[in-house]
């Protein structure tokens, strides 16, 4: 992983076979980041995607082992149980030029991942919402 900070943003380059989430969590800890947004492009493999069903309060999950173009990666950083937590959604492109996407649970870099992280000067935790069934951002007391 290579990281460059400029103008308040971080430019992160991940290398082939790096774990996307482990690398991002390492970045957040090393650079003491507590909240922010990210987006990226590149190529991934061994992706586990999910689609959340509110009526059942559970995800359908599917693993895509093949390499795919990372067409769009968007998400945010917050904290869950005192650890950095990246909530990421993605759109991936297959070799037949079809696309698929969803909530990203895990992924390995297939070629490279080029990510821009924009920190925000907040510290935000996630708390479980019983009605929704997920750990959602708690923005109370964060200021305006």
General description of the model:
This protein has one helix and nine strands. The model has no long low-confidence stretch (mean pLDDT 96). Strands 1, 2, 3, 4, 5, 6 and 7 form a seven-stranded antiparallel beta sheet that branches. The termini are far apart. It has one domain (2-138): 60s Ribosomal Protein L30, Chain: A, CATH 3.30.1330.80. The longest helix has 11 residues, at 20-30. The protein is flat and about 45 Å long. By secondary structure, it is mainly beta.
Task: Furnish the topology, listing elements before pairings.
Layout: E1 2-6, E2 9-15, H1 20-30, E3 36-53, E4 58-64, E5 68-80, E6 83-93, E7 99-119, E8 125-129, E9 134-138
Antiparallel strand pairs: 1-2, 2-7, 3-4, 3-5, 3-7, 5-6, 6-7, 8-9
Q: What is the level 1 CATH name?
A: Alpha Beta
Number of structurally distinct domains: 1
Compute the average pLDDT: 96
The assigned structural class equals mainly beta
What is the approximate shape?
flat
Descriptive labels:
60s Ribosomal Protein L30, Chain: A; 7-stranded antiparallel beta sheet; 1 helix; 9 strands; 64% strand; flat
Short description:
8% of the residues lie in helices and 64% in strands.
């Amino acid at each position: 992983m290579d990281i460059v900070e400029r103008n308040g943003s971080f430019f992160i380059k991940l290398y082939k076979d790096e774990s996307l989430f482990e690398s991002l969590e390492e970045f957040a800890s090393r650079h003491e980041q507590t909240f922010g947004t990210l987006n990226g492009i590149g190529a991934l493999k061994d992706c586990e995607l999910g689609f959340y069903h509110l009526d059942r309060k559970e995800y359908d999950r599917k693993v895509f082992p093949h390499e795919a173009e990372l067409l769009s990666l968007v998400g945010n950083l917050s904290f869950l149980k005192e650890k950095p937590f990246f909530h990421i959604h993605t759109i991936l492109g297959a070799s037949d030029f079809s696309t698929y996407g969803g909530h990203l649970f895990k992924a390995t870099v297939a070629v490279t991942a080029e990510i821009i992280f924009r920190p925000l000067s907040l510290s935000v935790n996630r708390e479980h919402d019983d009605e929704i069934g997920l750990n959602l951002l708690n923005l109370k007391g964060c200021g305006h």
